[in-house]
Records
---
Amino acid sequence: MSGCVYQKETPLIIGLTGGIASGKSTAAETLHSWGAYVIDADKLGHRAYLKDTAAFHAIVDTFGADTVGEDGEIDRRILGGKVFGQPEKLEALTQIVWPSIRTMAAQEIKLAQAQAPARVVVLEAAVLLEAGWQDLVDILWVTVIEKNIAIKRATSRDGVDAAAVEARINSQLSNAERTAKADVVIDNSGSLNELQKQLQTHWLKLEHKQI
């Protein structure tokens, strides 16, 4: 499929989000293969923790010097132990990390726009809605999947306990909450081929400015 060129004053920016095992990353990879510039917020999140970043220093100040490992970087295991099961501390951590990720995402969007003004940009972010990043994008695509299928796929993919996966799903936004804010809903409860057909349909609509 040819790359998508969207005729507008600025490049089209798609916000792509979804729950665990909903096919979000597969969708992003597919869109990338069709010409989109994909920004992975998870990768930006890892960068946010790196030594000597603003988030690094804020984490140390907030959660203690013992969060720094022998390599001088944040020890995610120790940090996780400090926030696990403690909503207030988890909120404090997200208030440090999410703004940092947002800043990096905005910078990368500008870079993508400068490099290829007509290229579609995709911001893939699991917490896009929770973090309130909708203003960074033009339209919102949401991948959804039936809960039982998500549990089955996540346990098979990650080798984790089904109960742990279900607990994570229950702690996130529901499909209904996400789709209520979506411009495009991609149902990934079926096969990979079915997922790609849905993506192709909406991608072609972008090419014809039918969003």
---
Amino acid sequence: MSTDLLAGRRVLAIGSALSGLASGPLAGAQLEVGGLDRLSAAGLSAADLVIIDADAWEAPDLAQGVQTLAALAAPPPVLLVGSHLPTTVVRNLLRLERSDVLEAPFTDEKIAYAITGLMAQKAIAPVPTAAASGQLARCWAVTGAVGGAGATTVAIEIATALCARATRDKSVCLIDLNLADGETAAYLGAHPAMRLADLGASGDRIDVAMLQAFVTPVTPRLDLLAAPRDPAAFDATSREAVLRMLETACESYEWVVLDMPRHRRSWTLEALGGCDEMLVISELTVPALIAARSLSDEIERGVGSGAKPKIVLNRLASRMFGPAPSMAEAEKALQRKAEGGISSDWEAAAASVNLGGPISTHRPKSKIVKDVQTLVDGLAGAMAKPGKAKRAA
């Protein structure tokens, strides 16, 4: 089965195994087969469609090729096919204006249908977003090792600290993915407006305009995406809607901070796989430290890209107040180094929650604010070092 849309069109196939499509769904097209080096602007000149065989390349090389495509002013439609589709690569690919993925094995009818959909899409003029400006959004995920570890508070303070690094208004987006009972909006004294469940399975309807309808502005530089309390939200919200919302947010902001649910959902690993940093927040109790170690190992295995979650110890306090483990003892229980620690300041945290807003607004001299700033400076500074490969959201 072939598609008339390809008659006489130039199709660039990245991967020699795709040459067999010339007698099937690519019949009538001018097919050229090449390697990842063809994804540069010169190699893509006048290409009407790019098909990439994900199974033909190592994930890091493939991710670099997709990032090269994303940097182009007007990349052609791109279809990624294969039986092994790395989540980081897929997340980067779906940032393109016209792209799709097709998991193998597939029939000629399925690939023809995917191509038809891509070719029928019209390229639209780019809007001024973080991706369009040449800088891919940086995405950090925050999750608690146990309930009540303070992950939401830390996520809010991280997002607030990142606003100081932003270069324009609406630069940072904080997304509460605890869809059923997230507390981010309540902590900030904001009104949650994100209603992904209303979209059902129609996640492809989400674009920049719709995303802004879901947004709750917190400050000129900080936007919040949070859902009203709904016990059925996880069951009513499709995986496609969540992932499409995340990719659209990453196209629109410089920084995206995810407040992740502690328990895994159908989209959890894909969301984490597209993040630059994954932070696991733990208290200094033995059960919490054991849970943090187990959760970090689970995420590392599940994401499978070589990225390692970083553990942050929350509510550090002087030992004079009880038999809390020291940092060294905590790291021994974790069997790894902690990325950093955040001091305990119950009064500052409680005051901010009751007043509505980040701790840095109501108690700017709190040790929590200082410790989070140190954490953010360390993570953002490490990303900015020459030669460090960026993992796009």
